[in-house]
Amino acid sequence: MEKKVAVVAIGGNSLIKDNAHQSCQDQYLAAKETAKHIVDMIEAGWEVVIGHGNGPQVGFILQKAEIAEKQAGLSMAPLDVCGAQSQGQIGYMLVQNLQNELKTRGINKPVACVLEQTIVDKNDPAFQHPTKPIGGFMTEEEANIKAESDGWTVVEDAGRGWRRVVASPLPMEIVELDAIKALIQAGIVTISIGGGGIPVIKNEDGSLEGVSAVIDKDFGNSLLARKINADLLLISTAVEKVAINYGTPEQKWLDKMTLDEAKAYLKEGKHFKSGSMAPKIQACIWFLEAGGKQALITNPENIGRALRGETGTMITAA
Ligand code: ADP
Ligand code: MG
Predict the structure, then answer these.
(1) Which atom of ligand 1 is found nearest the CA of 244?
(2) Which of 124, 123, 98 has its CA nearest to residue 109?
(3) Which residue ranges form the domains of the chain, and what is each CATH number?
(4) Cβ neighbours of residue 269 closer than 8 Å, sequence gap 6 or more
(5) Ligand 2 center to 273 CA (angstroms)
(6) Residues in domain Aspartate/glutamate/uridylate kinase (predicted)?
(7) % residues pLDDT > 70 (the chain)
(8) Cα–Cα distance, 206 to 185 (Å, whole number)
(9) Centre of ligand 1 from the C-alpha of residue 310, in Å
(10) How many angstroms separate the CA atoms of 284 and 193, rounded?
């Protein structure tokens, strides 16, 4: 029997609803809710591979590390290790909630989380121009010390203080791809590509090495969807549908777009905000250009309805 495989990229709001709900307990409850919607998909016959964002979680890990360094002299973990930590904690919450929900419904299906590394090109131009602010604000003096001692790139952030910036290179290869494929084949609900993956580079001798960078989770999940020839790339975010002329009086919510329309809108530059919706549309475009049939963008509570064609924005190859 041919399996229908969906790559489901879940956004920050599936884990942290708002600023008042950032505790571990709140994140667990948010994951529990998202798990219900994903098990609905499983009941509807989908094999799912789940990826997730990790921006706020890595932010918290860094914040704690900064305080611990200042107050107790504990050394800070490099960014790739912070990414690995976030995959563990988020993966755990998703795995357990999916297991509980499957059990409640009497579905006998195993769940597993794969710690995943994503290879980026060490010559990616993003490394020459790091743009992604990360961690807390510093004084100019603190920033200079960090630049000197840890090689950080630091910038002055609009009069608010100094911040570390890191590169956001494009994901090129998924190190654990074969393991992920084997899990899907075995019918195991798989969680992977957390935060786009732990960024690593491949050295001349083939060895891998972590780098201080961040990868866009929508790009990372799009890459996985292409590599496994997924039937669907589902991006679960904070909005029910995608709009054109977003945030203007001409705003129009879309039920569907073709690949060509999506490319034209993205090129116009005014429809999808950079850093939020634009990378999601780009992620869908790359998936469809590589032969994917359909990409869907909606919010967690509408996943079921959107899959039945009742809401969400469906992007198709033609
Ligand atoms: P995630 O954590 O899921 O990656 P983001 O905040 O990065 O979420 O992106 C989703 C957000 O993009 C929405 O909440 C919405 O505010 C914003 N957005 C920007 N442009 C659009 C658009 N054209 N249509 C719908 N939402 C948009
Ligand atoms: Mg985002």
Answers:
(1) 23
(2) 98
(3) 4-123+170-316 (3.40.1160.10), 131-166 (no CATH)
(4) none
(5) 10
(6) 4-299
(7) 99
(8) 28
(9) 20
(10) 16
